[in-house]
What we know:
Elements: E1 5-6, E2 16-21, H1 45-56, E3 74-75, E4 91-94, E5 101-105, E6 109-115, E7 121-126, H2 128-133, H3 135-143, E8 150-154, E9 164-166, H4 167-176, E10 184-186, E11 198-201, H5 203-213, E12 218-221, H6 236-239, E13 245-251
Parallel strand pairs: 3-4, 8-12
Antiparallel strand pairs: 1-2, 2-13, 4-7, 5-13, 6-7, 6-8, 9-11, 10-11
Amino acid sequence: MQPDWILPDWPAPANVHAVMTTRAGGVSLPPYASFNPASHVGDDPAAVTENRRLLRQCLPAEPLWLNQVHGCEVISKVISEATSETPAADASVAFEPNHVRAILTADCLPVLFCDEAGSVVAAAHAGWRGLAAGVLEATVASMRVPPDRILAWMGAAIGSEAFEVGEEVRENFVSQHALTAIAFRPALPGTLDGAPRKWLADIYALARIRLAQVGVEQVYGGGLCTFSDADRFFSYRREAKTGRMASVIWRE
């Protein structure tokens, strides 16, 4: 048995390897069926352990799992796979060969990074809070290479037809970068004064805009919707009690 996954469609150097798992190929039972590698969502710990073992046998080392907190902390230090430490952060960077970086998502946007030379890789968890807090910008800065030499790949996330947010979310982004207004459109009829009550947000567009602001123009992926594709993806908004997909990256 092997987890099912998606391969990034990007021109990464030959020594960089990356995958995003789907919900297929594991041993978890509903509502976590079947490949759920997340230990914090209520799944049977034995099933999670087996799912992680199945993933680990396809990787050069144990991934660095994070305690994701929807912030902008980036782990760039070397952490041994033998440690029990699970650092609180939403992104991690690796300069050393065969150090696997990983994040877990189920609607939030996973973004994988490498540079053109294959000297550094990174993984970032970008929900709207992390995006607004600057997790992508912090990840790019932690890679310590010129942004115009960085490649980014955006994995499956909630699509713009399903990602409904309030005015406070839109204002958070637009107040930082006016251009992000193009990533929102009204979701419901307006109030008496004509203001929309809810907005539909394009998380892929938000990520592209914020990456472009720091000089990262080589951005790939996008367009896969976790909410609408129940066969392949977990979705927190669709099911609440559900598993997570893993996005992992490493360099030789």
